[in-house]
Write a structure and sequence with these properties.
Blueprint (H helix, E strand, L loop, with lengths): L2 H10 L3 E7 L5 E6 L2 H4 L2 H15 L5 E5 L4 H11 L2 E8 L2 E4 L10 E9 L3 H12 L3 E10 L13 E5 L4 E2 L5 H4 L5 E2 L6 E2 L9
Helix pairs in contact: 3-4
Bound molecules: zinc ion.
Zinc ion binds next to helix 6.
């Protein structure tokens, strides 16, 4: 499967929206990604994972994902690799293993995520693995939005699609200037907000 068709599938299932969006941070962007929209279809999760598994091409003992976004794709990748899947989640702001999950010393851990944005959560999962004495053997994601190499690894994350998403401060958002309707994604219906910054320069 080429990245072109991955993008097409994401768009077909509204997992990748293009336009003018206001993010929860208040910043604006030209694209919005919600992998849950596509991972609700087991067949697609299976297809995506198949390509990832091929690209990963190395042995691991366990797949570890950050909750919630990484759980489905991590589980499916693990199923195809015939290993087990665990996940990290935040407790009081810090990423950690809960629910009795553990990583044994020197276990080969593959980190699987839905979207890598800044690599911040990836770095946190890497730190969790290290704290248990595990070895990170790779990072894989459906979409890689990051623009730099995560941590000090010799490899880049394996992904199905590299995607650039422009983020703008509302004050100098070119999409606002073009008067493209502003949408708040993720709500029950994608609410069209109009452009609230029209009066600003
Ligand atoms: Zn804008």
């Amino acid at each position: 499967m080429k990245s072109f068709s991955v993008k097409k599938i994401l768009k077909e299932k509204d997992a990748l929206l293009e336009g003018h969006f206001v993010l929860s941070s208040g910043l604006h962007s030209n694209r919005y990604v919600q992998c849950a929209k596509v991972l609700q279809y087991p067949k697609i999760a299976e297809q995506f994972s198949k390509v990832l598994v091929k690209k990963i091409a190395t042995h691991c003992d366990v797949v570890i994902s950050p909750a919630i976004g990484g759980i489905i794709i991590g589980y499916e990748v693990a199923r195809q690799l015939r290993v087990h899947a665990i996940f990290c989640e935040r407790e009081n702001g810090a990423m950690n293993l809960r629910r009795g999950f553990e990583i044994k010393k020197n276990e080969r851990c593959l980190i699987v995520e839905d979207v890598i944005t800044t690599g911040g959560s990836t770095k946190e999962v890497i730190d969790v693995v290290k704290s248990y004495g595990g070895k990170v053997i790779g990072v894989a994601s459906i979409i890689d939005r990051s623009t730099r190499v995560i941590a000090k690894f010799i490899w880049r994350p394996v992904s199905l699609l590299k995607l650039k998403i422009e983020i703008y401060n509302p004050k100098d958002c070119p999409l606002c200037k073009k008067k493209i309707p502003l949408v708040k994604p993720g709500s029950r219906t994608n609410v069209r907000l109009g452009c609230s910054h029209r009066s600003e320069k």
